[in-house]
Specification:
The protein is an alpha+beta fold. Strands 1-2 form a two-stranded antiparallel sheet. The protein starts with a helix and ends in a 9-residue tail after the last helix.
Length: about 60
């Protein structure tokens, strides 16, 4: 899931946090609306950044949960 999709889901659900699960429904992390909004405003952001990149500390590692 991309950061943009996650932000849209969170806005629609009116939640502040999103739990991230893997293919086996195991919790792999949590991100906040503030973290993702901050990432979207950063120079490291592109529309291809995925939540797994944020959790893994990849290109968007400054916002790791």
């Amino acid at each position: 899931m991309t950061v943009e999709v996650a932000l849209a889901v969170m806005a629609g659900a009116r939640v502040e946090h999103l739990a991230i699960c893997d293919g086996d429904d195991e919790n792999t992390g949590c991100v906040s609306l503030a973290q993702l909004a901050g990432l979207r405003e950063s120079a490291a952001y592109t529309d291809r950044v995925r939540l797994r990149d944020v959790l893994d500390g990849g290109a968007a590692g400054t916002v790791a949960a």
